[in-house]
Amino acid sequence: MHRVQLHYTLSRDAGDARIRNPLPELLQAVAGQGSISGAARSLDLSYRHVWGALKRWEEQLGGALITWNKGQPARLSEFGSKLLWAERQAQARLAPQIAALHADLERAFAVAFDDRAHVLTLYASHDDALAALRAHAAAQADAGALHLDIRFCGSVDAIRALNEGRCTLAGFHTLEQPAADSLSARIYRPLLQPGLHKIIGFAQRTQGLIVAPGNPLALRSLADVARSGARFVNRPLGTGTRVLLDELLAQAGLDAQAIAGYAQSEPSHTAIAQAVAAGAADVGLGIEVAARAHGLDFVALVHERYHLACLKSSLEQDATRALRSLLQTPRWQAQMAALPGYQPWHCGAVLAMKQVLPWWRFAHEKRRAEPGEESA
Fold first, then answer.
1. Rounded distance, CA 146 to CA 206, Å?
2. CA 206, CA 252: separation in Å to the nearest integer?
3. Whole-model pTM?
């Protein structure tokens, strides 16, 4: 069995949260360019370096990575294709955990190098705009920069982490106007309390069907998914997207059992897109930016709002104020708007809970005291 070793690099430049390996990058370049020389040019390396690296990898791994036929472009061998697929699957499925590890390291070194830095811990439903915000915040050169320690998990788990004191902010999402008797209301009402929690606006984003290029099964709705028997891939219990799916199924009068693959789940929107791109599933529910990043088609179903919740007591803390200020900058809002399917929504503003979650209704008149009951 081959073993995996992980390394990290300290740098002043903000990088992404991927764990990189030179072999998959070489294989991807060869597959894309169709030749060793083309791969070398795309990677800004010499032909000799790429050729030698591939030969060393073949010797170490015990199998041919590239095949040639006379007059034909260079192609990945079956072994090489399987290695590239395995790396893509691992990166997609482990993206939230890798991002959490990345955030842990950055937080530790942020404190070590700059004791004036603001560090804000955020548990949140998986979201590409938040990942972009973390990189944007880290790139700011001002003294006392904001470092976002983001742990991606389900919406329900995020709010529970907030209530248990494990984070300062929780990210979750709902439909634009969730009804008072909706599944969202039943799940989130016990977790969020007026007077205790505050809501900070963040984004409007689009969720829909992630499908193969060209949408070969002509899937336009969840009813189409059920009727066609398309292989569906779901998000786990406790995630906001799973709640959204169940709400949409109820609205369409569909039973979960009508969806082939309802019980199969992946941990993130990225992993959903990768499953469709790899042919392991025909369709999944997710955000548009994940579909576009994998060259897939996207069928929009609903707009939803992504909220940041905090305790009222932490609203005026320096780190929370720094985040709100950053969210309100035109530069950040323009960056968010450039993400497919995203628009800023009251970004950084503190919102009334009854405006955001309209199942909350507050009585304006005091209840009359019953006979024999003392007035409050």
1. 28
2. 18
3. 0.69
